[in-house]
Amino acid sequence: MSIRTRFAPSPTGHLHIGGARTALFNWLYARKHGGRFILRIEDTDLERSTRESVNAILESLAWLGLDYDEGPYFQSERFPRYREVIRRLLDEGKAYYCYCTKEELEAMRQEQLARKEKPRYDGRCRHRTEPRPGVEPVVRFRNPTEGEVVVEDLVRGRVVFANRELDDLILARADGTPTYNLTVVVDDLDMQITHVIRGDDHLNNTPRQINILRALGAQPPRYAHVPMILGEDGARLSKRHGAVSVLEYRDQGYLPEALLNYLVRLGWAHGNQEIFSIDEMIHLFDLQEINKSASTFNPSKLLWLNHHYLMHSNPLHVAHHLRWHLGRLGVDPEEGPDLVDLVLALRERTKTLAEMAKSSLVFYRDLTEFDPEAAAKYLTEEALPVLQALLERFRQLDAWEQEKLHQAVVATSEALGQKLGKVAQPLRVALTGSSVSPPIDVTLYLLGREKTLARIARAIDRILANSKPAL
Ligand code: GLU
């Protein structure tokens, strides 16, 4: 049997960390077994579903590299099929029309509560044969009243539900629209899903879905319910804990492989191993090894992983992502240093691509201001001959290569009888506006001849202007 998994988000918001992990687990399981991964957009709630959310979900999956083999299927395009299944269940007596009004249902609820019973629909329309004039009926599933539903969950183990605890759930609302449990069942069946891997907030729906599948004469898929993700304070992960959407992590400068690596470890482990390449994840992942208890989201560990991937991924790959971040800052990546050189120069000192892009700005944009403290300390009259000598030397340099640039700085310090720092620091402030930058030869190299000469000249002008005697 070929494995078929699905990711079935409701497009009522961005793809968040929990959803992304569900998508990843489904994707890994399908890839591991040479199966198919299906994307299904559950947009039957027409009021809450938006195009924008659909786009955000597709964009997030594409950025993470979780490619799907089929879909996206849209439930909103499948209403005729749902109607057909509801009709069939009605015809076979496995579903029935319920004409109870809101008021009646509320009265039933109150009576049950007064008797200290769990509120549930009591099935009073099960045997009704006549319609009730003026009431648009809902369609309810005729749930078995006896026996139990056993879910052999691949994460939780055996979970048993008594049928008498499950009431006759609504399959179609009074306006004819199908409900969640019906659409999921029809789709899982039609799409021949073999493994349903989803959040454990759906565990209570599972026995109902199994009963409907059985009523349709179908063999239910296997289920794996994944425990939820908590914030560090133990509460369910939410916006209060910081970024929760995948696109926010992209925008903050995380690499997709860092986020995937983080997500795979969130609730799943393979010994003590922390770093997993995508291939390793596919190879090693298994549903049985998913933790039974909730996991805690740890932003500093994610940041650590991101730095690891910035350092160890192919610089060309990192450069590709850096290009996107530079674009976001309004920088044309063609008008500056080679991006691979930038990555090599900056990756050790930056933890995110956003930080790296910000540190790169100095190599693109004209310097508009100097850090006042750095300028006061280093762009002084004392530095004037240093900068003038450097300017001269750089002008005469035949090739703009890191080694030659290094020698030029050393030669200048020797010629002036100054310590290297006395030369390098004013130069650094002249070039970058600040006293922190990558090593000076790297900075010079990345900046290029034209910008270097212009910036030293400008720093010289600044010193001269400041040293003019006051009138
Ligand atoms: N659409 C449901 C959700 O976003 C998922 C349903 C399922 O996986 O069965 O929670």
Which characteristics define this entry?
binds glutamic acid; single chain; 19 helices; Glutamyl-tRNA Synthetase, domain 2; Rossmann fold
Write up what this structure looks like.
This protein is mainly alpha-helical and 471 residues long. It folds into 4 domains: 79-226, Rossmann fold (3-Layer(aba) Sandwich), CATH 3.40.50.620; 239-312, Glutamyl-tRNA Synthetase, domain 2; 314-365; 366-471, Arc Repressor Mutant, subunit A. The protein is built from 19 helices and 12 strands. It has helices spanning 17-32, 51-64, 79-91, 102-114, 180-190, 206-215, 246-251, 256-265, 278-284, 299-312, 315-328, 339-346, 353-360, 372-378, 384-396, 402-416, 420-432, 440-447, 449-467, and strands at residues 4-7, 36-41, 70-74, 95-98, 138-141, 148-153, 157-162, 170-172, 195-199, 222-226, 229-230, 295-296. Strands 1-2-3 form a 3-stranded parallel sheet. The longest helix is centred in the last third of the chain and has 19 residues, at 449-467. The protein is elongated, with a radius of gyration of 32 Å. Glutamic acid (GLU) is lined by residues 8-10, 42, 184, 198, 202.
